[in-house]
User: What shape does this take?
Amino acid sequence: MIGLSANELGDHERWIADINDIAQTDLQFPIIADAKREVAWLYDMVSEEDMKAPETAFTIRSVFIIDPNKKIRLTMMYPASAGRNSREVLRVIDSLQTGDKKGVTTPIDWVPGGDVIVPPTVSTADAKKKLVRTTSEKSGHI
Assistant: This one.
């Protein structure tokens, strides 16, 4: 996980201290300082109009899930006024990892351990193997 902030580097230290105090945690991921919004611009997190005055531009709050092959697998974009949902981010990561590992897809509102969808290109025998394995994992038996 990497954070990107449109603030100066010094602001990060105060922000991290605030998060650690409020959440009783110890923030341990790197944060990129992007005060000129150059990285935000590359990822469409700020409009061309806003780039004319980058010191006042609000970035669009965004989540990018990038896999080990450096492929963007998912983007979520939120207006500055709306909070993000960290549970949803973790659920999607679980879904992507399950799909990659098992060759299945996940249905709407899927949660880890829930039913999965076997693609129609998979034979019935192979589907049964996948379902048995997935069902076993759901109950904690592998």
About this structure: The chain has two domains: 3-83, 88-138. DSSP finds five helices and four strands in the chain. The chain has a mean pLDDT of 83.
